[in-house]
Amino acid sequence: MRKYPRRLYEVGKTPVQSRSMNHSCYLSNIQTVREELREDVWSELRESAIGVIVKLKELSYIWSAKVVHYFLANQLAIESSHEIWSLIDDSMPLRFSLYEFGEITGLNCDPFDKHDVWDVDHQEFWLEMNVPTSDGPTLLELQAIFPICRNWPREKRVMIGLLCLLSIGIFGISSNSRIPLHCAKRVMDIAAFQRYPWGRIGFSGLVDSIKVLTYEAKKSYTLHGCVHALLT
């Protein structure tokens, strides 16, 4: 019989889902993007480098915290900080790594290009959005723009839509948390945006949030990143 690493929790002692699982990758927020920014923007977002988030919304699938919790609660104790292994039925363990994440989502998971020296002057657009120029925007700030941006040029509405998708579907952060500035600015250059490995961002945020989880001490726990890849 093949031996695997020990379980994080002994059989019969895995934490039950008495704790609330939280995440911020709400597909309902993506529907609001569609309604507010209109169909011409929605179709362009669908074809973008992170268009899988739009397509996921269009699938209308149902999130199951119970299934995800079961996967997390049956993890094996492995040394790698970039993989998750889970033994579901005492037979073959399931691996979740950057490879599986890329296969599931289709997002670009290539290594970061250290030679990709790039920048853009973002200040005018940031001021137009009423966002501090020293930071990336929050989802709340982006949503506040919806009523006033309906008559803006399509290119600007697309940039706002991409920022919303980054906050909701890639970083999976709370609505008052800021997108890192160096990532947010890429929406202003479509080529720079399209070539960036957003899959690595979404995967790292997700796995990092899982690796620091404790299930017993707190009343809830929170996942970040592209959490829907755990179910798809």
UniProtKB/TrEMBL annotation:
Presence of keyword Transmembrane helix: yes
Keywords assigned by UniProt, alphabetized: Membrane, Transmembrane, Transmembrane helix
Superkingdom assignment: Eukaryota
Segments passing through the bilayer: 158-175
Signal peptide (UniProt feature, chain positions): none
Domain DUF1985 stretches: 72-207
Descriptive protein name: DUF1985 domain-containing protein
Protein source organism: Brassica carinata (Ethiopian mustard)
